[in-house]
Amino acid sequence: MSNEAATAQAAEAVPAPEPLPHGLGVSLPAADARAKTEGTFPYAADLWAEGLLWAAVLRSPHPHARIVSIDTSHAREMPGVRAVVTHEDIPGSPFHGRGTADRPVFASEVVRHHGEPIAAVAADHPDTARMAAAAVIVEYEVLDPVTDPEHAFEAEPLHPDGNLIRHIPLHHGDPDAAGEIVVEGLYRIGRQDPAPIGAEAGLAVPRPDGGVELYLASTDPHSDRDTAAAAFGLEPERVKVVVTGVPGATADREDQGFQLPLGLLALRTGCPVKLTATREESFLGHAHRHPTLLRYRHHADAEGTLVKVEAQILLDAGAYADSSAEALAAAVGFACGPYVVPNAFIEGWAVRTNNPPSGHVRGEGAMQVCAAYEAQMDKIAKKLGIDPAEVRLRNAMATGDVLPTGQTVTCPAPVAELLQAVRDFPLPPLPKDTPEDEWLLPGGPEGAGEPGAVRRGVGYGVGMVHMLGAEGADEVSTATVKVHDGVATVLCAAVETGQGFTTLARQIVQETLGVDEVHVAPVDTDQPTAGPACHGRHTWVSGGAVERAAKMVRTQLLQPLAHKFGMSTELLQINDGKITSYDGVLSTTVTEALDGKELWATAQCRPHPTEPLNEAGQGDAFVGMSFCAIRAVVDVDIEIGSVRVVELAVAQDVGRVLNPAQLAARIEAGVTQGVGIALTENLRTPRGLIRHPDLTGYALPTALDAPDIRIVKLVEERDVVAPFGAKAVSAVPVVTSPAAVASAVRAATGRPVNRLPIRPQAAVVTERS
Fold first, then answer.
1. Distance CA 392, CA 378 (A)
2. Residue limits of the Aldehyde oxidase/xanthine dehydrogenase a/b hammerhead domain (predicted)?
């Protein structure tokens, strides 16, 4: 037998490999997984350009001070220094900010928070740049900082716009309504840092036309471009933002104050300039979660049914407005949680202080109030002597109910179903009191805990978040889909921040067009805007735009065939790369139908409009909502106050599962982030100074701290107004899990637990307590 014949016979004996699954509902691997595992993913910190200069930023060591003088002469004279810029060197607008442009690019007269930028330097070596920044002499008149948000109301104005950023008085129902049972509470939520895997970095390259290109880990490139163009005194088309690999984003990539000095230095020197932040600079520069003070009073009848909720919510916005107005709207709108409350009276304020700026961090506003209203539900259950899950079930919201804002919940709201699922899930076994199982104790191996001091607690959290922007935000995204030679390309300025958009875009096109090979083009501002990567926007709006464009291409593909056979395109279907008719007369492949043609289409997706809350806190402010219920099981050493989260059982309203593996990973990541909020993460700022701005002093949960996470139920009740019927999944477990952990610690200790993160002393049980 010849070699050719033997090869042919062997080929016949080996079955052809099964085609890889694709399309919606399949666990398609992440599009960037290979590049990340091989180390070829293009992070901004890895970028390089010929003639590169290095930048460094001088930041204020004081939280509040008047600037008497700035002397840059020593820095300018240092060998290797190419430029030094301050507020005097800004050719355009000296202010920037998300939502409200109230933050100076460089402080000129007053510094309002620790770490505020004063000057920036470009030099031929990173060490030279840092030394030159340190050589800038700034004379300060140190002022007393306002760090207590309650004092901001009476304090002297910290900003020309005043100390009050927004006030929302929500009035819903009868103010005289009262219940037989009344419980009250005062709650404090600490400052959480996004703590990105990689610190901020960027590269600015001047263009021949006098413009500049910014290579950034941006989550909203068009907004960043417009802000940069305004500061540089340029037309937007002369500034281009190219999105590099984003090493995770939960708001930390939205610090525009990092980007602007970079571009100014490139324009000033005519050379590419790179800036890589240290971990300390990262902590000082980007926004954090709003520390919040909450006062609550709940009224209920003798059966535990809610009658009225009264609350006061105070957000510490830090020195500048950023997204505090939007965070306050979420906090006030969801202040009663996913429960039916006929009467609600909520007062919400966001104020400026001299603390570090607060901004968008996953679940902002909703997370803080969830911790408070769930503590109130525990108090009602305890006062009435009923099961904590039962009191929640008696008040659970459903589709058709009305929020305290007056908005009817039109989306699926299976709150009771979620809560029942986690309540009925079997509890984990108790740890054995044997030496080999000591690692199960709070404190871990070699911990100080004693088995006899450990108490187990079971608690519940039920949370909700809104999806997309709110209060009239114009949510729109544009996408283009092209098909040529059996390969599809998606162009959309939706940034992949880890939420899986590029994978989802591939799945949408595979599902719609039957094309296996789909590429998603890199993002830059030459493409039409897709908006910021937050609130599940890109799953809904950008995914919707991709789907519409793909369907338009599908029509272009099928119309000639439908016309040839005298039928409508609706009678043709595409499955596994094959086009067939309903009656079997037509059967061909997508490749044959394309016949070398290039097809393309561009489409937009814009959800139904919303409206701002009025002077009484009323209005249809939110596009859609998602819900989650979590049951937490914890072990607490009541002598030393250490807490171990044993298990978190999760049930979530997801609309439709588009990628099972990706969805599970997002839920697990959100739950783990919430554990950090509950137990360890607290960025301490005594008198406005960030203490220990590093990952040693800021205690993130590690893999050893992550509990067993059981996703016990995913409710797939499709939201009819959302593309594919899917809902965002990342934020709501972040919102819910801290409340569930706190509830379980309350159950284990009998202590009130009214502060997050939970301090050890709050979990210690003494005879007095």
1. 9
2. 38-144
What does DSSP say about strands 117-123 and 53-59: parallel, antiparallel, or unpaired?
A: antiparallel
Separation CA 316–CA 320 (nearest Å):
10
Judge whether 683 and 585 are in contact, CB under 8 Å: no
Q: What is the pLDDT of residues 371-381, one digit of tens each?
A: 999 999 999 99
Chain length of the chain: 769
Whether the pLDDT of residue 308 is over 90: the answer is yes
- H/E run at residue 220: none
Taking the CA atoms of the chain, what radius of gyration do you get in angstroms? 28
**Alpha carbon 646 to chain centroid, angstroms:** 26
Interatomic CA distance for residues 453 and 458, integer angstroms? 17
* CB contact set of 154 (below 8 Å; sequence gap of 6+): none
Q: What Å distances lie between residue 131 and 55, 56, 77, 88, 275, CA to CA?
A: 11, 9, 12, 21, 14
Query: Which residues are 630's β-sheet partners?
Result: 461, 650
Helix axes of 366-384 and 731-749: crossing angle, nearest 10 degrees = 30
Q: Which helix (H) or strand (E) holds 282?
A: helix 279-285
Give the SS3 label for residue 56. strand
pLDDT band at 432 (very low <50, low <70, confident <90, very high): low
Among 136-150, 326-340, 562-576, name the one with the lowest average pLDDT: 562-576
- pLDDT band for 178, please (50, 70, 90 cuts): very high
Kindly give, in sequence order, each residue whose CB lies less than 8 Å from that of residue 175, ignoring residues fewer than 6 positions away. 343, 345
Residues 212-234 have pLDDT tens digits of 999 998 888 999 999 999 999 99
The separation between CA 437 and the C-alpha centre of its own chain, rounded to angstroms, equals 37
Phi and psi based region of residue 641 (left: phi greater than 0; alpha: psi -120 to 50; beta: remaining): left
pLDDT tens across 82-124, in order?
999 999 999 999 999 887 889 999 999 999 999 999 999 999 9
Q: How confident is the model at residue 437 (pLDDT cuts 50, 70, 90)?
A: low
Q: Which residues contact 199 (CB under 8 A, 6 or more apart)?
A: 45, 276, 277, 278, 279, 281, 282
Cis amide linkage into residue 757, ω under 30° from 0: yes
**Which among 636, 664, 635, 634 has a CA at the least distance from the CA of 650?**
664
- The pLDDT, as a whole number, for residue 440 is 65
Please state, in angstroms and rounded to a whole number, the distance separating the CA atoms of residues 450 and 590. Answer: 67
Per DSSP bridges, beta strands 622-637 and 643-653 are antiparallel
Q: How far lies 64's CA from each of 96, 183, 412, in Å?
A: 19, 39, 48
Q: Residue 438: what pLDDT? A: 54
- Name the average pLDDT for the chain: 89
Counting other chains too, the contacts that 138-141 makes at CB distance below 8 Å and 24 or more residues apart are 138/58, 138/60, 138/67, 138/69, 138/70, 138/71, 139/67, 139/68, 139/69, 139/70, 139/71, 140/60, 140/62, 140/65, 140/66, 140/67, 140/68, 140/111, 141/65, 141/66, 141/67, 141/68
Asked if residues 90 and 231 have their Cβ atoms less than 8 Å apart, the reply is yes
Residue 537 and residue 219: Cα distance in Å, rounded? 12
Distance, in Å, from the CA atom of 364 to the CA atom of 594, rounded to the nearest integer, reads: 47
Q: What is the pTM of this model?
A: 0.92
Of 66-70, 293-297, 689-693, the poorest mean pLDDT is in 689-693
Instruction: Please report which helix (H) or strand (E) contains residue 380, including its range.
Output: helix 366-384
Q: Per-residue confidence at 498, pLDDT binned at 50, 70, 90?
A: confident
Alpha-carbon dihedral angle through residues 357, 359, 365, 371, given to the nearest 10 degrees: -60
User: How far from chain centre, in Å, is Cα 59?
Assistant: 27
